[in-house]
Design a protein that fits this description.
The protein has 136 residues and is mostly helical. The protein has one domain. Helices cover 60% and strands 0% of the residues. α3 packs antiparallel against α5 and α5 runs antiparallel to α7. The longest helix has 17 residues. The chain starts with 11 loop residues before the first helix and ends with a helix.
């Protein structure tokens, strides 16, 4: 899984995804990551799609001043959030919440991978905290 932590940017996929923010001046990359999970419907959800959507939700939380992770892995994201003037729409926040619910639900590879680890409880708590951060 390439993960070293249960946090939003505690895996290779999320960190790689964040490099794309440098080319953006709005939340389009964030919206695309979230929409990819929602467009998946009830089909089996790939862990990479889920990891990117969690990272995207963290970006939204940071834009609201409610980020759940601040460390060396989020330095680039933190700088990007400070550099833009755009704010997330209520619609995007609602979609992020829906994507996080989907990620924690059945037929989610990421959830299954975390269930097989000793850190499942920490991961689940982390995603729930992120849901609260982007919640309405």
């Amino acid at each position: 899984m390439g993960a070293w932590s249960h946090e939003s940017f505690g895996n290779d996929t999320a960190c790689d995804w964040a490099y794309g923010l440098d080319e953006q001046r709005d939340f389009s990359l964030v919206a695309n990551a979230i929409q990819a999970v929602l467009d998946n419907g009830s089909d089996y959800l790939d862990s990479d799609l889920a990891s990117e959507a969690i990272a995207a939700a963290e970006v939204l939380a940071k834009a609201l001043g409610r980020g759940t992770q601040t460390d060396s892995y989020t330095e680039g994201v933190d700088a990007w959030v400070k550099s833009i003037t755009a704010k997330p729409s209520q619609d995007l926040l609602s979609k992020a919440n829906g994507a996080l619910t989907r990620i924690m639900g059945p037929d989610s590879e990421l959830r299954e991978l975390w269930e097989e680890s000793d850190d499942f409880g920490n991961w689940e708590s982390s995603v729930k905290a992120l849901q609260s951060a982007v919640g309405e």
